[in-house]
Amino acid sequence: MSKTYTITAALPYTNGPIHIGHLAGVYIPADIYARFLRMTGNDVIYICGSDEHGVPITIKAKKENKSPQEIVDRYHQNIKQSFSEFGISFDNYSRTSSKIHHQTASDFFLKLFENGSFEEITSEQFYDQEEGQFLPDRFIIGTCPKCGFEESYGDQCEKCGTSHNSSDLINPRSSISGNKPSLKSTNHWYLKLDEFQGFLEQWILKENKDYWKSNVYGQCKSWLDDGLKPRAVTRDLDWGVPVPVKGADGKVLYVWFDAPIGYISSTKEWAHENKKDWKKYWKDDKTQLIHFIGKDNIVFHCIIFPSMLKAHGDFIIPKNVPANEFLNLEGSKISTSKNWAVWLPEYLKDFPDKQDVLRYVLTINAPENKDNDFTWKDFQNRNNGELVSILGNFINRVVVLTKKYYQSIIPTKNQLVDADKLALKLVNQSITNVESHLNNFKFRDACSEFMNIARIGNKYLADEEPWKIIKDNPERVKTIIFVSLHISSVLGIVSEPFLPFTSKKIKSILKSDNHEMKWSWDNLKNNDFLISENLKINEPELLFSRIEDSEIQKQIDKLNKNN
Ligand SMILES: [Zn+2]
């Protein structure tokens, strides 16, 4: 039955390009899910946008002597292009510096302000007299009280990893002017998170214990067990959504408060452009809201944003938050500052037209329940040993044989024998498994089950050996090729969520639009053949090509050169 889904993917932070960790953790699984749900007849919107506020952007802007807007404009375009090149099928990709977002976030704040969800608290914060501004934690540098590192940030020491308050630093200084900051009192609004403790315990710990992923549930439980405290939703900064109340000059919404509202404003933007009603996707209890995020975002999407939505009162809360763990690279944590990463624009330069290879490797090895490692060697092995040898090889053999024996015209099948029936049965089982895994957010298993269909096809061809019997039993060969072409058509459809570029190629080779049966996901399950006899298909075309050792060595050298 058709349902309505609002699928969101974490808003990428616009202070750098996108790397493979982002893709594996969030955007590919969400894309697979969105594509699958669309193919199975649901009303789906897949929503994202750039997160353009926050302190790191202002720091980068100061360093480069640019305005924050110039910084975000540069990366917004860069990120948007990477997503599009990798086939991430967003219905809308917006940005939080847009007018519609500022208005939406501002209205959201006001509603909570007026209904008593905030409390105003005055506290002492570091202030740079020379610059005339308050200093967020990241703008304060000093000696770490734990390890003595002299360049520790206000909120965290990068050397020993300890979190602390900026007031704990020894010899604190402003990272803008280098001066010793003074303390100055300032007032801010705090969301009374403690008031949502009971609701969150009931909703997450009781109602979703068996449904949510265990890594997500575990992190939520630990936050709830510690007890929730009010949390500041505003800060003293000049880059962000201005706090829309009197006497709040020089204050903006804290970036964690405005960013998730970006999902709503992005939906509004899409609805406006497509003449749809955005409220259906955010205010109808029958709509399923699903947030795809990395594990560092769990608290914001499972504890804080749902509390904000609840405090507002008009919105639905998420049905699930299938957060992933982290992807490492060659055994070490991906690091932007150390340039230990595979950046998408660079990948495409080195491996043009190999988007699906990366999509495949990042899915089959996704960090679903624990941190996982991307290695170039594994990338090569998966390409050569699976995409080339199993999937590419199967489709190619079938299409080449069809050309050789029948001038590319699909033969008329004869009576099916047991071997045919068995292969078809196994393929159908795999389709059912793919569906079930996708419905349960198990993208690795789903992808491996999809590849299994190609394995079944290869085994069937190897067992039936049409090339050996073509002379003595040409009628039997017609059936074998027919069944193999049907399995190829199944692969053309089932590959679409995982490998959209390859799916398009397979469909084009097999002329998917010219068959009597519609090549839809629903028709995969009615035990009928998708292909039509006597239809002429296209020439063979290689789907994948081998990746040589030298290309892999080049990538490893490139990584090591930076370190
Ligand atoms: Zn330290």
Describe the structure.
With 563 residues, the protein is an alpha/beta fold. It has three domains: 4-116 and 192-324, 3-Layer(aba) Sandwich (Rossmann fold), CATH 3.40.50; 118-189, Methionyl-trna Synthetase, domain 2 (Beta Complex); 376-525, Isoleucyl-tRNA Synthetase, Domain 1 (Orthogonal Bundle). The chain contains 17 helices and 16 strands. The chain has a four-stranded parallel beta sheet with strand order 3-2-1-13. Strands 5-4-9-10 form a four-stranded antiparallel beta sheet, with no helix packed on it. Strand 1 (4-9), helix 1 (20-39) and strand 2 (43-50) form a beta-alpha-beta unit. The two termini are 53 Å apart. The protein binds zinc ion (ZN). Residues 144, 146-147, 149, 152, 157, 159-160, 162 line the site of zinc ion.
What labels would you give this structure?
Methionyl-trna Synthetase, domain 2; 563 residues; 17 helices; Rossmann fold; binds zinc ion; 4-stranded antiparallel beta sheet; 4-stranded parallel beta sheet; 16 strands; 3 domains; Isoleucyl-tRNA Synthetase, Domain 1; alpha/beta
